[in-house]
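Hi R.,

Here's the chain you asked about this morning:
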Amino acid sequence: MKKTLLSISFFLFAFTGFSQEKKEVNKSPWSKATNLSLLFNQAAFNDQWQGGGTSNYAANFGLTHDANYSKENITWDNRVVIDYGIANQKNQEFTRKTNDRFEFNSLLGKQIKETPWYYSFFLNARTQLANGYDFEEDEDGNPIRSKATKILSPGYFQAGLGMLWKKSDKLKLNIAPATGRLIIVNSQFTNVGQGQSDIDAFNQIGYFGVYANETSRFEFGAAVGGYGKFTLSKNIVMENVLNLYSNYLEDLENIDIDYTLNLVITANKWITTNVAFQAMYDDNAVKGFQIREALGVGLTYGF
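And here is the predicted structure, written out as tokens:
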């Protein structure tokens, strides 16, 4: 975990430094922005406290870095997103993750004459940073956990060709009807016994769409990505990110959905209130919507 974070930090430092170095040149085609946030919540009660409550703490770290290039009829937008959060309650055996995300997006476009339309190519990579667990109890009622996910298990990689409509860096829509998608997983989660009934039973459920004794799944389909950032008032900014994907090769009607709403209310340069809402649907992972909501007041720094 520490090696992973150090590697990512080095990558971001180099990525940010490159953007800064370019920006010093007059009329640089590069623009960049980095936003760091740290949200922390804590409550403590002693044994004599009669009002009820359980001592607990929660913390969430967020980083977003954008490096965008625009010159003549070429536009190239890049974004790195890291979110990681933990929470723990008194007498709870294990600290639990509340958020875990690493994502890289790159979108290259070549303008079609003097219109807001571009020929486009996009690349997306998404995974997590730390192990994920399923929590249960043993026969004696003691809490136990079993590893369910880890970094690059699953790992999602997408690349596609299409058309981009871009009004500005804050409002754009990319449509890629020719998109390849690769899902990779670790064999420790897919290895099963050689009995045919065991394999058939596993394949009915799968592991993020990957079948028994395999470590990857390839799909070919269509992807749509939309981004909109709006200033609602002087101190309130709303960011919307929508990604859709449909696999031509299997269950075309099952559309994967990933929508994120970020609302940032700024008190001053350092103090903000952050509201995040995310809704995901991927029937390879779970038959239903996955919902995440987070609200916190904390330190934020942008540069």
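One quick note: Residues 2-302 form a domain with the Outer membrane phospholipase (ompla); Chain C fold (CATH 2.40.230).

Cheers,
M.
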